[in-house]
């Protein structure tokens, strides 16, 4: 399948032209307004549809009054002055988009690809029935979604408290031992990494997976992304890079973007990624490896100290970090250690 990256105006023009001649196309979804059925990073396929065939429950690809392209569900329809009008709403939001004219609909979503799962919306099935019934649960649907989010936050809080206990960490490490693999990410991992870091939720990034793919293809320019996986699922990642020209205030090699999925923290994944980063830095003949960490993130600070890092000062960078601390009300510190070649 041909993949291209487009600006918003190019996407509007091309998608309209494809659908006008009866074609179809696929694109990567952004945002969370259609959660839980469509998540950021899912690949949606859109086909042309006759206005008369549109029905309540369909997921429409339409152009808003301010020329934005939106994928939301049809929750009602009516005739006004002999023109079909549709009421649109996202599955996870309480407020309607408002009524639109049917000729604003460019097409209908006919399939959703979530990693390896492929959902055909034009074929009968349990999930399709649930999706088409979702709007009938309003406002129970959005309410249960937001309640679930709060429940997850509560469980996350409890998990973090457990992860602070040494006995929990020892048991967790024993259970996960031998199940985790570490490697340098390649362009094939771009889509999964984009979802792992949540880049689809960030404004201003039109094709995060495409951007990552380019970076992973050019490690000499952008650094190495090191990943920890359980089977094919990315559960941890870190970036090892050097600033072009080796200019201050970022001399030598740096670790950025350390992230481990919440449920896997305290199991040694972070330690494994740091060890891999140090080994790679050694291969690159690095003299030192540096990182930035929030001063109050005691778990991370203790991990880095355990692995030989100590706090240092880089005058030019210290000034930037001081300004950041005054603005953000939290402080990052520099930690560093020599690399054993």
Overview of this structure, please?
This protein has 10 helices and 15 strands. Helix 5 crosses helix 6. By secondary structure, the protein is of the alpha+beta class. The protein folds into 2 domains: 8-142, Umud Fragment, subunit A (Ribbon), CATH 2.10.109; 179-338, 3-Layer(aba) Sandwich (Aminopeptidase).
Overview features:
Umud Fragment, subunit A, 10 helices, 341 residues, seven-stranded mixed β-sheet, alpha+beta, eight-stranded antiparallel β-sheet, 2 domains, Aminopeptidase
What is the structure about, briefly put?
With 341 residues, this protein is α+β, with helices and mostly antiparallel strands. It is built from 10 helices and 15 strands. Helix 5 packs across helix 6 (208-217).
Provide the fold topology.
Layout (H helix, E strand, L loop, with lengths): L7 H13 L3 E5 L14 E5 L11 E5 L5 E12 L2 E7 L8 E4 L3 E10 L2 E4 L5 H8 L6 H24 L2 H11 L3 E5 L5 H8 L10 H10 L1 H4 L1 E7 L2 E10 L10 E8 L8 H15 L4 E7 L3 H9 L3 E3 L2 H14 L3 E7 L3
Parallel strand pairs: 12-13
Antiparallel strand pairs: 1-2, 2-7, 3-4, 3-7, 4-5, 5-6, 7-8, 9-10, 10-11, 11-12, 13-15, 14-15
Helix pairs in contact: 5-6
């Amino acid at each position: 399948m041909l993949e291209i990256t487009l600006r918003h105006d190019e996407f509007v023009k091309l998608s309209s032209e494809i659908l006008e001649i009866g074609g179809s196309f696929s694109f990567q979804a952004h945002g969370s307004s259609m959660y839980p059925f469509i998540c950021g990073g899912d690949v949606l396929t859109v086909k042309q549809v006759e206005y008369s065939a549109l029905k309540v429950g369909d997921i429409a690809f339409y152009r808003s009054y301010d020329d934005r392209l939106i994928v939301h569900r049809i929750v009602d329809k009516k005739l006004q002055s002999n023109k079909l009008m549709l009421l649109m709403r996202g599955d996870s939001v309480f407020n309607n988009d408002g009524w639109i004219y049917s000729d604003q609909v460019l097409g209908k979503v006919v399939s959703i690809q979530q990693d390896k799962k492929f959902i055909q919306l034009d074929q009968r099935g349990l999930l399709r029935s649930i999706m088409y019934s979702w709007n009938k649960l309003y406002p129970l649907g959005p309410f249960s979604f937001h309640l679930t989010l709060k429940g997850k936050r509560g469980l996350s809080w409890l998990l973090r408290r457990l992860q602070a206990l040494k006995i929990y960490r020892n048991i967790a490490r024993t259970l996960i031992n031998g199940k985790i693999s570490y490697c340098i990410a390649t362009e094939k991992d771009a889509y999964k990494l984009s979802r792992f870091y949540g880049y689809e939720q960030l404004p201003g990034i039109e094709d995060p997976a495409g951007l990552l793919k380019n970076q992973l293809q050019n490690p000499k320019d952008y650094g190495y992304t090191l990943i920890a996986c359980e089977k094919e699922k990315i559960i941890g990642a870190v970036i090892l890079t050097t600033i072009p020209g080796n200019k201050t205030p970022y001399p030598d090699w740096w670790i950025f973007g350390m992230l481990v999925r919440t449920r896997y923290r305290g199991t040694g994944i972070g330690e494994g990624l740091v060890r891999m980063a140090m080994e790679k830095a050694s291969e690159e003949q690095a003299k030192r490896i540096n990182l930035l960490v929030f001063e109050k993130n005691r778990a991370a600070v203790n991990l880095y100290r355990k692995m030989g890092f100590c706090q240092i000062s880089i005058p030019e960078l210290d000034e930037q970090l001081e300004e950041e601390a005054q603005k953000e009300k939290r402080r990052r510190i520099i930690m560093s250690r020599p690399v054993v070649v």
